[in-house]
Amino acid sequence: MINEPDQSRLILDLLSEPEQSMTSYAHLRRDLRGIYTLWLRDVIRLWRDRVRLIGSFIQPILFLFVLGGGLKGRVLSQGSPSNYQVFIFPGIILMSILFTSSFAGMAVVWDREMGFLKEVLVAPISRTAVVIGKILGGASNSLIQGLFLLALAPFLKVFPSVGQILMMFGVMVIVSLSQTAMGIALSARMSSSQGFMVLMNFIVLPIYFLSGAMFPLTHLPIWLSVLSQMDPLTYGVDLMRGILLGTFYYSIYRDILIIMFFGILMLYISVRQFQRD
Amino acid sequence: MIQVNELKKEYIQKGQMITAVNSISFEVEKGEFFSLLGPNGAGKTTTISILSTILSPTSGNVLINKINVEEDPHKIRQHIGVIFQDPSLDDRLSAQENMDFHGRLYGMSPADRLRRSELLLKMVDLWDRKNSLVRTFSGGMKRRLEIARGLMHRPLLLILDEPTIGLDPKSRRDIWHYIHEARKEWGMTILLTTHYLEEADGADRVAIMNKGKIVAMDTPSKLKQSLGPGLVTLEIPPDKMDQVKNTLLTFYDVRHFSLETESTLKFPMPSSVSSPAVFLQSLPPVLTGFSVGTPTLDDVFISLTGDQQSINI
To answer: What's the pLDDT tens digit per position in B1-11?
Structure first.
């Protein structure tokens, strides 16, 4: 039974004092604590679910070694890369990041189905903090996937320098964050996981296929070229491939700016979507 | 503690405007145990969602601890604990982790989190299962854990939305025991919605909602008194039903029944009746059963919200 009346009475007294308004510093501290808590939860859950984590590597590995291995060394048509396997490697890393990041939205839908989301929404942290916490949690998951795939580089006889690894890591960070923000924005109003899966197929697969992850952007039919330019992932693939293989299709600055702009837009939409009705 | 003034909530569903809560007002004192009763769709959960800052009102205002829910929802959230109708635990985390995360979200120190979660998990008899994942728990255990979690940050106001639905009688009794312990300890205010009328019987005051409005609000005993001195139940052979109804209408002006079946009529004792014995003598000698009972909250509830049937002659 409860047997610390003095303690709780003391706290009650503190609480029933007329409250002075919280400083913005206190607001910020409370929100940072909330963000950390939500991130920590995602990381713990990821670690608990190691089987799923390992299972999620199967798809990119099949792409890389079966598709990439099968097409390696064959000349498909004009302008096709000399080593297809190495050519698609950066795209496969980003594919894995894209799928995992978007999946963070699914976690929000599950939280809603399970009811846990309500526990978070009545907690004394701002909706912005809730969204950022979820984005950081999901992006951490994607980053782990991306780094694991990057570690397979020696199997393709690719040996990036420390500088290249650091730059690719940076690209993976901003792509993870912006794609997770997209996943969260899509999940904000979805109440069923089936519905979310359908939505994802409509959005995530086109993003992947149009990004140039599997083919060079040169000599594309005009419609494909236009759609590809509208795809935010195109610029991430361009950066990764540029860093690893040395040739950028667009400029580095354009790539970085577009990814960041997309991420901030998605963050803004997510926060708006999570406001109360 | 709570002031609700002309609260209204409308939303659009399938192109139609639905008024879930229609200009309700009520106040709840600090330390009071206040209960909202009503059939499904009466607007109880919507009301509670606005009070717990999940939904925004369409119009009207709500003050909790003198803070407007629209102006500073964060400050309110710090002081309320919410126990939802549906479970809201993370079932992939352990009981202890659920408690700990709650404490973190409410800004409790690590030492305080440890002490409180031990105290509360012991109180709800889950201490020996503290490291088990919640998905392995039974419905009753999950509910107990949610109660413990809701009390973790010492809320000044505990909001419970049908907290004991689907639980066996023992679990229900236990849960009320924990809540009353906490109430005694720091004078917590309780706002409850429930279908179990005997739970509302323990409340200081009850508001009965129907179709988005509060149709009655008083102490449970006053609400029962409002039904008059007693409730009459008559057992009648079906073929004599019309004869009895006719007598009741002609001599006592009884038109409404709180319960009517093929062979039963239930209605408040007419005020013109001096004693049950006299009343019985004045009825046709066809009855197979006659009883007068004290009204329960059920009777109040049914008479205010149920579909009343009038006599058709």
So the answer is: 899 999 999 98
ipTM above 0.95, yes or no: no
Provide the whole-model pTM.
0.80
pLDDT digits (tens, 9 = 90+) for A49-102: 888 888 888 888 888 888 888 887 776 555 556 688 888 899 999 999 999 999
CB contact under 8 A, A2 and B54: no
DSSP string over B277-308:
HHHHHHS-TT-SEEEEE---HHHHHHHHHS--
| CB atoms A276 and B55 under 8 Å | yes
Would you tell me how many other CB atoms lie within 10 Å of the CB of residue A155?
A: 12
Q: How many CB atoms lie within 10 A of CB B164?
A: 23
Which residue among A4, A37, A115 places its CB closest to the CB of B105? A37
Q: Please choose, from the candidates A15, A1, A122, the residue with its C-alpha nearest in 3D space to the C-alpha of residue B182.
A: A1
- Give me A188's structure tokens: 């904000």
Nearest to B186 among A1, A8, A121 (CB): A8
Residues in a beta bridge with B94: B133
CATH numbers and ranges of domains, chain B = 2-223 (3.40.50.300), 227-310 (3.30.70)
Closest residue to A34, CB basis, from B55, B105, B119: B105
* Sequence-ordered list of residues with C-beta below 8 angstroms from that of B147, at least 6 positions apart, any chain: B83, B124, B163, B175, B178, B179
Contact A120/B105, CB-based, under 8 Å?
yes
Using the Cβ of B109 and the Cβ atoms of chain A, whether some distance falls under 8 Å is answered with no
Q: How would DSSP label each residue in B72-97?
A: -HHHHHHHEEEE-SS----TTSBHHH
Q: What share of chain B is helix, strand, coil (3-state, %, to 5)?
A: 40, 30, 35
Whether A121 contacts chain B with CB within 8 A: yes
- Please report which helix (H) or strand (E) contains residue A168, including its range: helix A162-187
- DSSP symbols for A23-37: PHHHHHHHHHHHHHH
Whether B87 sits inside 8 A of A277 (CB atoms) is no
Residue B190 C-alpha, separation from nearest chain A C-alpha, in angstroms:
16
Minimal-distance CA residue of chain B relative to A12: B186
